[in-house]
Amino acid sequence: MWQRGISKIGGVEKFFYVGLSHDSLINHYYTNFALIQHHKYSLAELDNMIPFERKIYVDLLLQHLKEEKERLESQNV
Fold first, then answer.
1. Closest of 23, 35, 58 to residue 44, by C-alpha
2. How many other β-carbons are positioned within 10 Å of the β-carbon of residue 61?
3. What pTM value is reported for the model?
4. Tens digit of pLDDT per residue, the chain (77 long)?
5. Crossing angle for the helix pair 12-19 and 51-76, nearest 10 degrees?
6. Which residues are within 8 A (CB) of 19 and not within 5 positions of it... i.e. 6 or more apart?
7. In angstroms, how far is CA 47 from the centroid of its own chain?
8. Are 57 and 64 in contact (CB under 8 A)?
9. Residue 22's closest CA among 44, 54, 45, 48?
10. Using an 8 Å Cβ cutoff, are 56 and 48 in contact?
11. Long-range pairs of 67-72 with CB within 8 A, sequence gap ≥ 24
């Protein structure tokens, strides 16, 4: 019977460790706070996201905010 070896950091754990390595802990909390306060996400929604899913949503939100800012600036000219 096949058995998986036990390791502290390996497999799925290593994937998520590497997946979160680009984000500092303080930045993670600042981003959570901004998403909760300004964009009506819940902490449960954010905690249940897979790291790459969270990155995609944050990138899409940043793109939307940039486009909205450009649209408002073009209207004010």
1. 35
2. 16
3. 0.61
4. 555 555 555 565 555 555 555 678 888 899 899 999 998 999 999 999 888 888 898 899 999 999 999 999 999 87
5. 20
6. 51, 52
7. 9
8. no
9. 54
10. no
11. none
